[in-house]
Amino acid sequence: MKIEEQNSEWSVQRLLAEEALRDRSLRMQAARILLALLMAVAAPLAAAMGESGRLYVGLGGAALTLASVLLLETRERAYRAGAVECKEQFDASLFGIPPTTGPRGRTLTEEEICAEAAKRGGDRQRMRDWYPDPGNLPHGFAVLLCQRASLVWDIRLRRRFAAVAAAVVGIWAGSGLLSSLTMDLSLRSYMLTWIVPSTPLLVIGIQAMTVHRDIANRRERLLSQLSFIWQAAKDQNRDVDPAEFRVLQEAVFHIRNDAPVLPAFFTRRHSPSFYKEMSEASRQLKGTSGAP
Asked: Which residue, among 81, 77, 70, 76, has the nearest Cα to 200 in the 3D structure?
């Protein structure tokens, strides 16, 4: 593996295209959240209309849930799939393996990648040195080092985001319960005025809480498998077999396909500290490969 290849024009194009597609996926997420929030906020106002108003709001919340899942979430997944394909091409090229293909059975063409990358033309410098420098590590260990950096980075981010999502869901549900007690609402009124209109918002929050936690758990299991492969190669004083890191890369690809995109502000907030810690861990691991 030649680390300088990650800074080539070919590689930077794929990282830029990935980010452009991730941004579009995030916009679909934002649209879902905004529509759900508008419905939830409108509920108390509609309640002033009496029972009929509460019924209409309840029906509107159910309809919005269906629209969010069938329309916006479908587009969100499609953009995410394209972003994952870009990242897979980037990784596969550096690791010297064929790229894994997703459900569409194809990878993005050069023309599609160039078109998406052009939308992020001003961010090229940020795409340089994406993975830590493996130094003089043998190829297999260098690949594992890069895969490990990707896994550790995402595990920590998703666990934190899942905790934030759980807190938001709890605060929202608790606020509704407190409001209903203050206004002495019946259980039926509480459900129609607060819970049913908030269904799309609560679904998004619960999904975020469970899905991101599940992705973190899957990555953690894969990290354990990677560590076992690293240690076995070290003990046997050999390089890592390409078949071993190929299996890991396929698993990474499928996890990425299932993982919703994290908000940009959240990742950028934690980037400096995480990157510093990963770089230090990578520096220490380079001295423990034990391979010739």
From this structure: 70
Residues 6 or more apart from 150 whose CB is under 8 A from it?
131, 252
| pTM recorded for the entire structure | 0.80
Mean pLDDT score across all residues of the chain = 80
Give one DSSP letter per residue of 112-143, joined into a string.
Answer: HHHHHHGGGGGGGGGGTT-S---TT--HHHHH
- Contacts of residue 136, defined as CB under 8 A and 6 or more positions apart, other chains included, come to none
The C-alpha atoms of residue 279 and residue 95 are separated, in whole angstroms, by: 19
Q: What is the mean pLDDT of residues 247-254?
A: 94
Both tokens of 204, joined, read 């998004």
The two tokens of residue 120 are 């992020």
pLDDT for the residue numbered 110: 85
Residue type for position 66: L
Give me 107's structure tokens.
Answer: 């990878």
Q: 43-71: per-residue pLDDT in tens?
A: 666 655 555 555 566 566 566 666 666 77
